[in-house]
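Researcher: I'd like a structural prediction for the single chain below. Treat it as a standalone chain; there are no partners to consider.
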Amino acid sequence: MNVWLLDGYRIGVLRPGDKAPTWTSGVGQARQPFGPDSLATDSTVICGGEAGRAYVGYRANEMKRAPGIEQRSYIPGPGEAGYTPERYAEYQKGDLDAVRLQPDGKVALEEHLWRTVKSSNDGKQIGIHNTNDFHYEEDRSVLNCARVTRGRDRGDLYITTNHGVTRIQGLTYNSHRHPGWYLYENGSEWGSLQCPYMYGLGIAPNGDVLVANEQMLGVLVPSNKLEDWDREFTWEGPTPWSFKSFNEVLNGQATDDYWRAFEQVRAGRYYLGSAEYGVWAMTPKSRSAGNWSKLAGLPTNRILSLKATDDGALYIGTNGAGLWRLEPDGTTLAPVRDVAGQRVLQLVYEPTVTPSMLLVLTDQGLTTLRGP
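Model: Treating it as a single chain, here is the predicted structure.
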């Protein structure tokens, strides 16, 4: 298997047998220097796909409200009222590139993703936008990615963005789902949908999709059809929420919990990691409420990553105290001494190789742990 690396505007590939990665610069949205007036302000994540393919995510600034346009995220297309070439180009920034490995080990752009399962933006090569209506720019910053490694949906990719979670099969996407809620202010009859940035993303052992934005979390049950992904019927329909709520023990619904990771261990417990409030264990008591308890024993509350492994353990990546392992009993906790670095930026688990492989990315480099 190839290991894909991302370093700003550079993409690296470590092929089986290589002693060092081969780097390629200036591909896709990184072909211009990063900045507010460029195609992206930064690169964010890289995720492997089918053999020889990877997906690279980018960040872009939120769009400003245009004169005469009531909604900030609405973008008129060519020939429509309010259309300007500058604004139309602006909302094609950020998003997601698919790249391909070349025979010499270098990387080339395959496609800036734009194909959807709906007809709204059919033929419009303008990036990832609202599947039902391409006029709405809601997914320009990719914040996390996860590939399904086994089961019925093996190979599917999920990305989280500034608005929700999008499902991708090959070069086709369906956007998006979010555990949002409505805020009613000053006795207003109409509420404002709250969909904060979404960093938390995990794949449960049974294939459920685990998502958490800054305030809420949810467990989605995906169907076998990509076109079903954005059909929102809450507890019913082809892709229902089996759980959707917030941590009422920690904060009120309108207060950010800063969730950065969401995993489920073999025993069935869910764990969420917060950038500010530590690791929390959760077991649902209904589809909209959970039993919450904070994990004790960590030297810091600043969490950046979590990963459940097949032996029932949970690996915890902290911001400042290195990597920790929680044993399957849910109480025994110890630091992982073999990994250098105090900031654990990302954990990637690959269970289909023998022995299984956990990639640990820290401020000191990349470490591979093998087993069980």
